[in-house]
Structures are given as structure tokens and as C-alpha cells.
């Protein structure tokens, strides 16, 4: 799902003609995900299925821009899905009352990334949909980070 979200966000930026600097990391992230998924599928004996998924993504790439409302809706749905995944993470943390393997540093880096993306979006495109996405993600990332820090286990030494 995250790969599709990256594709939608990249296509959204290209569709509206935003500067390359505002979305340059997305092709790199997408390439990494594609290579990783292909390797997983190849070594599990499902390489043909990987080709099928590639065709679906390729078709989706062009279908997203058939109408302006399609790309806008896709962008908003990706924001909703990303937010929902963070809410699920929060719910799990609240239920278990244990941060487990969740890294406060990783979530803190996500907070920093969202804050930086808000600043760069305001300075370059000022796109409301992108700003809303990153503001929502910033709030949720702060919340998850705080929850991870709250529930982390401290090691007592005597």
C-alpha cells in the first residue's frame, strides 16, 4: 500500500507541474520498494505475480491523470490510508501498553521529515492538499513518538 501511496504522490506532484526538488526522493523510494518486492517475489517463487503487479501499477500511473478529480481523490485517499495506519499503530500501543520493537528515534525522524516537508511545501507550492497531508502526518507521528516514549521499558540497574 505504501508503494501505491508513493506513486500517487509522485504522480500528483508531476501532474500539477511542481518543481522536481519537491518530489525528487519519491522516485528513489519507489525504485527501492520495487526492487525489494521483486526480490521477495523472486525468491519465494512468485516472480510472475510480481510482473502482474507491475502491470497494475503501470496502468494505475496513467489512469490517475485521466481526470483532475481522480488524482485529487487518490491523493486524499492516500492521506486517509496513511493516517489510518498510524492510528492502528497507536491503538496497538495503547492495547499492549508496550512499545515493543517500535523505535522512538525512527518515529522522531518521521516527525522531523513531516515538519521539513511542511516548510518546503509552504515555500515552494503552497498546495493545500499536500499541506493537510503533512500536517496530519506530523500530528500523528508526534503522537506515536510520545506514546512509544511513554510505554518504553526502562532497564533498572542496581
UniProtKB/TrEMBL annotation:
Transmembrane stretches, start-end: 26-43, 50-70, 130-151
Source domain of life: Eukaryota
Keywords: Membrane, Transmembrane, Transmembrane helix
Species of provenance: Sterrhoptilus dennistouni
Name of the protein in its database record: PQLC3 protein
Gene behind the chain: Pqlc3
Entry-linked InterPro entries: MannP-dilichol_defect-1 (IPR016817)
PANTHER family membership: MANNOSE-P-DOLICHOL UTILIZATION DEFECT 1 LEC35 -RELATED (PTHR12226), SOLUTE CARRIER FAMILY 66 MEMBER 3 (PTHR12226:SF3)
Amino acid at each position: 500500500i505504501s508503494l501505491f501511496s508513493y506513486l500517487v504522490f509522485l504522480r500528483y506532484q508531476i501532474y500539477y507541474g511542481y518543481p522536481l526538488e519537491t518530489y525528487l526522493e519519491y522516485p528513489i523510494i519507489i525504485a527501492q520498494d520495487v526492487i525489494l518486492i521483486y526480490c521477495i517475489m523472486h525468491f519465494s517463487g512468485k516472480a510472475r505475480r510480481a510482473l502482474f503487479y507491475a502491470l497494475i501499477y503501470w496502468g494505475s500511473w496513467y489512469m490517475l491523470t485521466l481526470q483532475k478529480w481522480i488524482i485529487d481523490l487518490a491523493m486524499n485517499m492516500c492521506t486517509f490510508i496513511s493516517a489510518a495506519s498510524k492510528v492502528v499503530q497507536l491503538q496497538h500501543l495503547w492495547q499492549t501498553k508496550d512499545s515493543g520493537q517500535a523505535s522512538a528515534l525512527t518515529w522522531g525522524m518521521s516527525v522531523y521529515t513531516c515538519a521539513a516537508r511542511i516548510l518546503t511545501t509552504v515555500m515552494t507550492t503552497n498546495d493545500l492538499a499536500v499541506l493537510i497531508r503533512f500536517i496530519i502526518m506530523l500530528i500523528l507521528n508526534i503522537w506515536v513518538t510520545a506514546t512509544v516514549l511513554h510505554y518504553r521499558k526502562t532497564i533498572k540497574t542496581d
